[in-house]
């Protein structure tokens, strides 16, 4: 059973009476444990594709199946429940809640589904990312690298089957980026999570098993197809 | 640059502007109204009096003075007035009214509004027994024009319904409605008896161009000496102007409170605005702008918005002032002509501009400290905490502005300082309550509660929380409203307290010596108790220890006030004290060796600088009576009793002209009506005061007063709500981001909505409770030190205020957060860091 299946996904925005199609008939399937990168220049539709895959928005046509659940037939609340159950997120700009401490930020996904022992789980994750002593600090009291590590801990808090990372090192310097990326892949491996990475950084993308390149909303390269062609040859 | 920079934030600046609009509107409306009122009093001064001069007395002046009064002026009208029960035979209704016997062409100025207008002519001809009756009395007694009204022994045909009498505010007709009858019939009513309390008055019209003030100067010494009062147009103008100047001063202070609330809104809006602008400031700094330049850019923006807001506010206020004469209608003795008031409008615009600059200064100071490093590192934190020494200068300026403005409004420095101090204390207490609340939530955070509750509670003390600003602004609004209701309840409670239990609730007075036995029989015949009975003799004080007023005035040592010799004393005689009195020094009234030893009220004794053994000489309607101060006593004036400053011993005043007062308690309105009808038919000159009716009248007056205050409080509340709305809207941008992120992480619509409802519900509830707590303390102080009554706050109005404030806060909070529920969470991925 695939963990994510995307079929003929198209997204069109209407602006000033004109339609703008930012994604054209995208297709791919991911198996559990896969690591996968979406690369492409700015404005190519990477983030739109990630948003649709995660059920953050609805497609104009086509379907997304997450853990065999068809997302486009669900309403927003149902999709929120799916996200809470199966999905974790990491953002370029960290997206921590400024009014909550580091520990509380990690607790949020668990709290939202009413899980008991959230604090204990969150503390263990903070320890895992090396911030066990910083749990009571607010985001503004943490450096960029530390905020992204809190974000990592939060992403794994609900034991997701699928992790979406949107330019996770975009706001970090080289040294910090390397640490965060290593941590990301380590945690991913330990948890057996499927990783979907959106990035400009080809070096980072190369660490994943499969890469698709998008340009103008169309997939122009899928390394898996190339490999299968090579196998057939 | 300032203008260009504001392009994308003007909507947010509009919020800050709207707080100024409301505050300035209130201020301009009240000040314009005050200016117009003063102008109208000036224009219509003669109508206030209805004549060029009036002269009145209750004790007949000397024949020489009487002769002078009869011949003064080009024309004159004569009025005899007293209180009496009047009845409507058709309906059986009875009520205490002011009976005025008129002769002549009153009023000389102004319009006597009578329906039908022809009734005035019929009345002035005085050929028949006709009466003009106040509208309120006709309504209360269920009578109409064409019915008859019985005054003493005579019946009068009601020829007209009086809706307005020159110089008399409509509210006065509620307290003492008047029945006007031709003076020539008064003698036959049987109501003018020896000892009756009657007032006499002349209305004069002089030839045009007469210097009335000059004429009054020539006779004032004589009139003063004989206890005759006089009133000129100028005198009345000043007196009316003074009382209404006080009213407008009070109201403008209320408007000022609304404006100050707006200032709180301005400061908080600018503070959040500055936070949002920090990145822009950092970029400007990187490009070479100095801290001062950056500061001036944003100061100019707020000043410009303040100016626009103040101008709109002044225009709105000028429109609102058109309705104010209607709001105050019943309290005004004149018709207020409304016109645009230049000084009020310019003053309002100036105040708005000043306020917007002054109250933005504090948050704007932080802009000077924004570092250009922010452009390089988003996580760079500037010190925006406001530990700037210039901050103290701004505090001083704000305080100076409040005192200065309050002084300009009141022209009384002590009052201005007192007002500022009171306001500072109220703000201080509310701030302390807000901070205390934040501390309490943090200290006793309920970790075991559900996530929604914990998230909502935590938002009360988390960074960028709105707790303090909302508790202060909404709390102040709730405080004003709750105080209003509690004070009203206090005043009503005071009257109710007097009329409760076994206290008397009906007072019969003007009972003549020969009538007392009959009245007693009438009361006991209806199985009603006689709770108190006292004879009353009226007199004046001639001298103290042989010294008259004139000789005492020359003495530089402690002396009694001037009024001690001009006032009328109503005294009784008995040899013991009653339950509302307590002996302080000496003895109860007694006679010894042919001397009469009187008992004096302790406060009065002190104010008169008397001592035991002093001699007091009284003039009892021409007959001198010498007494000695034999004792002092404390009197509970709050109790419904006939209480007296001076009590004579028995055996001295029995033969003096006197009347009796009798008190009873009637169980219901029906018994009261039966007793009053019995009195009117058998003892027409005897009057009855029904405390139940007084209670109702007090209630009506308070209802009208509270309407006026509520109208003013409305501005404060509207501003408070605006502050609330702007705080919510400004924090919305932060909340929106948080909520969308929560949605991304899987929160349901219900969870987001619950967090919003609980958070704003808590804020509203706690703000309302803070305001109410403050109002309970305030009204307790009023009850304890001003009204001197036991304090029992009424819970229901407080509950209503709490619920309304809380619900409004939640509604505004949820309304402003509705975007969160409809925006797709994908936006968060595209959001700026």
Architecture per CATH nomenclature, i.e. the level-2 architecture of chain A: 3-Layer(aba) Sandwich
Proportion of strand residues of chain B: 15-25%
Quick one: biggest sheet of chain A?
6 strands, mixed
In spatial order, strands of the major sheet of chain A run 6-7-8-3-9-10
Proportion of residues in extended strands of chain A: 25-35%
Family (chain A): Belongs to the ABC transporter superfamily. Macrolide exporter (TC 3.A.1.122) family.
GO molecular function (chain A): ATP binding; ATP hydrolysis activity; transmembrane transporter activity
Pfam families (chain A): ABC_tran (PF00005)
Protein name (chain A): ATP-binding cassette domain-containing protein
Walk me through the structure:
The complex is a heterodimer of chains A (233) and B (833). Chain A has 233 residues and is an alpha/beta fold. Chain A has 8 helices and 10 strands. Chain A has helices at residues 46-53, 76-86, 102-112, 118-128, 144-157, 174-191, 202-205, 223-232, and strands spanning 4-15, 18-30, 35-39, 61-66, 69-70, 87-90, 162-166, 194-199, 210-215, 218-222. In chain A, the strands form 2 sheets. Chain A has a 6-stranded mixed β-sheet with strand order 6-7-8-3-9-10. Chain B is α+β, with helices and mostly antiparallel strands and 833 residues long. Chain B has 4 domains: 1-45 and 248-411, no CATH class; 80-104 and 118-186, no CATH class; 425-502 and 693-833, no CATH class; 532-664, no CATH class. Helices cover 55% and strands 17% of the residues of chain B. In chain B, strand 2 (75-88) and strand 3 form a beta hairpin.
State the gist of this model.
With 233 residues, chain A is of the alpha/beta class. Chain A has helices at 46-53, 76-86, 102-112, 118-128, 144-157, 174-191, 202-205, 223-232, and strands at 4-15, 18-30, 35-39, 61-66, 69-70, 87-90, 162-166, 194-199, 210-215, 218-222. Chain A has one domain: 3-Layer(aba) Sandwich (Rossmann fold), CATH 3.40.50.
């Amino acid at each position: 059973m695939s963990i994510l299946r995307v079929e003929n996904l198209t997204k069109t925005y209407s602006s000033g009476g004109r339609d703008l199609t930012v994604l054209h008939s995208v297709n791919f399937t991911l198996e559990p444990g896969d690591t996968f990168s979406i690369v492409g220049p700015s404005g190519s539709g990477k983030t739109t594709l990630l948003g649709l895959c995660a059920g953050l928005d609805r497609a104009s046509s086509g379907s997304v199946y997450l853990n065999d659940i068809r997302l486009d037939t669900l309403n927003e609340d149902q999709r929120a429940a799916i996200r809470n159950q199966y999905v974790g997120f990491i953002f370029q700009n960290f997206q921590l809640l400024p009014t909550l401490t580091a520990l509380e930020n990690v607790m949020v996904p668990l709290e939202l589904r009413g899980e008991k022992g959230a604090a204990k789980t969150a503390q263990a994750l903070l320890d895992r990312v090396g911030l066990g002593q910083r749990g009571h600090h607010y985001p503004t009291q943490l450096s960029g690298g530390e905020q992204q590590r809190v974000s990592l801990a939060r992403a794994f808090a609900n034991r997701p089957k699928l992790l979406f990372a949107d330019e996770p090192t975009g706001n970090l310097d080289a040294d910090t980026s390397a640490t965060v990326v290593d941590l990301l892949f380590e945690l991913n491996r330990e948890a057996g999570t499927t990783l979907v990475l959106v990035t400009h950084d080809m070096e980072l993308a190369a660490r994943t098993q499969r890469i698709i390149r998008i340009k103008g909303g169309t997939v122009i390269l899928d390394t898996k197809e190339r490999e299968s062609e090579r196998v057939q040859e | 640059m300032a203008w260009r920079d504001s392009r994308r934030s003007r909507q947010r600046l509009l919020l800050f502007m709207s707080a100024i609009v409301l505050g300035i509107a209130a201020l301009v409306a009240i000040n314009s109204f005050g200016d117009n009122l003063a102008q109208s009093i000036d224009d219509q001064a003669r109508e206030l009096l209805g004549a060029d001069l009036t002269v009145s007395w209750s004790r007949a002046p000397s024949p020489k003075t009487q002769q002078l009064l009869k011949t003064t002026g080009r024309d004159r009208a004569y009025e005899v007035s007293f209180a009496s029960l009047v009845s409507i035979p058709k309906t059986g209704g009875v009520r205490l009214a002011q009976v005025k016997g008129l002769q002549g062409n009153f009023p000389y100025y102004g319009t006597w509004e009578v329906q039908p207008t022809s009734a005035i002519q019929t009345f002035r001809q005085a050929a028949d027994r006709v009466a003009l009756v106040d509208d309120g009395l006709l309504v209360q007694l269920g009578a109409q024009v064409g019915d008859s009204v019985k005054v003493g022994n005579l019946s009068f045909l009601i020829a007209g319904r009086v809706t307005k009498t020159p110089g008399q505010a409509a509210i006065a007709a509620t307290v003492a409605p008047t029945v006007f009858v031709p003076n020539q019939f008064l003698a036959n009513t049987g109501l003018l008896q020896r000892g009756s309390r009657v007032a006499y008055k002349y209305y004069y019209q002089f030839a045009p161009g007469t210097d009335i003030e000059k004429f009054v100067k020539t006779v004032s010494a004589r009139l003063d000496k004989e206890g005759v009062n006089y009133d000129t147009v100028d005198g009345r103008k000043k007196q009316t102007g003074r009382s209404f100047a006080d009213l407008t001063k009070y109201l403008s202070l209320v408007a000022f409170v609304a404006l100050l609330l707006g200032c709180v809104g301005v400061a908080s809006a600018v503070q959040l605005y500055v936070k949002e602008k920090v990145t822009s400031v950092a970029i400007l700094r990187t490009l070479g702008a100095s801290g001062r330049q950056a500061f001036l850019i944003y100061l100019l923006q707020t000043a410009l918005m303040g100016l626009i807001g103040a101008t709109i506010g002044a225009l709105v206020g000028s429109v609102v002032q058109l309705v104010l004469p209607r709001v105050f209608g019943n309290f005004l003795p004149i018709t207020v002509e409304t016109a645009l008031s230049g000084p009020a409008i310019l003053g309002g615009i100036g105040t708005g501009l000043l306020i917007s600059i002054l109250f933005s200064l504090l948050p704007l100071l932080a802009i000077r400290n924004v570092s250009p490093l922010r452009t390089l590192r988003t996580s760079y934190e500037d010190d925006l905490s406001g530990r700037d020494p210039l901050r103290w200068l701004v505090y001083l300026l704000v305080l100076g502005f409040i005192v200065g403005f309050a002084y300009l409004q009141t022209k009384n420095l002590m009052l201005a300082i007192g007002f500022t101090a009171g306001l500072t204390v109220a703000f201080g207490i509310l701030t302390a309550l807000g901070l205390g609340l934040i501390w309490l939530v943090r200290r006793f955070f309920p970790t075991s509660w559900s996530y929604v509750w914990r998230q909502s509670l935590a938002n009360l003390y988390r960074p960028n929380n709105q707790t303090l600003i909302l508790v202060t602004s909404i709390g102040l609004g709730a405080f004003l409203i709750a105080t209003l209701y509690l004070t009203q309840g206090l005043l009503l409670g005071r009257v109710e307290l007097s009329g409760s239990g076994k206290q008397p609730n009906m007072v019969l007075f003007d009972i003549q010596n020969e009538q007392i036995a009959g009245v007693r029989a009438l009361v006991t015949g209806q199985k009603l108790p006689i709770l108190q009975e006292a004879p009353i003799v009226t007199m004046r004080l001639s001298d103290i220890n042989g010294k008259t007023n004139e000789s005492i005035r020359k003495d530089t040592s402690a002396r009694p006030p001037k009024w001690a010799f001009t006032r009328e004393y109503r005294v009784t005689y008995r040899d013991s004290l009653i339950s509302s009195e307590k002996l302080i020094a000496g003895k109860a009234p007694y006679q010894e060796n042919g001397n009469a030893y009187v008992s004096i009220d302790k406060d009065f004794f002190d104010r008169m600088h008397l001592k035991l053994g002093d001699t007091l000489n009284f003039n009892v309607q021409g007959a001198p009576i010498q007494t000695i101060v034999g004792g002092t006593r404390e009197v509970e004036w709050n109790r419904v009793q006939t209480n007296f400053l001076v009590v004579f011993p028995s055996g001295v005043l029995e033969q003096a002209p006197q009347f009796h007062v009798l008190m009873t308690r009637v169980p219901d309105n029906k018994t009261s009506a039966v007793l009053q009808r019995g009195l009117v038919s058998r003892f027409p000159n005897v009057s009855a005061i029904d405390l139940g009716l007084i209670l109702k009248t007090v209630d009506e007056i308070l209802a009208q007063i509270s309407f006026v205050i509520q109208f003013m409080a409305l501005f404060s509340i509207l501003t408070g709500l605006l502050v609330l709305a702007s705080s919510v809207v400004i924090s919305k941008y932060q909340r929106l981001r948080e909520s969308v992120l929560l949605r991304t992480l899987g929160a349901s619509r219900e969870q987001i909505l619950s967090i919003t409802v609980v958070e704003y519900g808590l804020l509203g509830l706690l703000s309302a409770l803070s305001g109410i707590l403050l109002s309970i303390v305030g009204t307790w102080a009023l009850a304890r030190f001003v009204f001197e009554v036991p304090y029992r706050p009424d819970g229901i109005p407080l509950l209503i205020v709490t619920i309304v404030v809380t619900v409004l806060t939640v509604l505004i909070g949820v309304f402003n957060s509705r975007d969160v529920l409809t925006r797709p969470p994908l936006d968060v991925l595209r959001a700026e860091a």
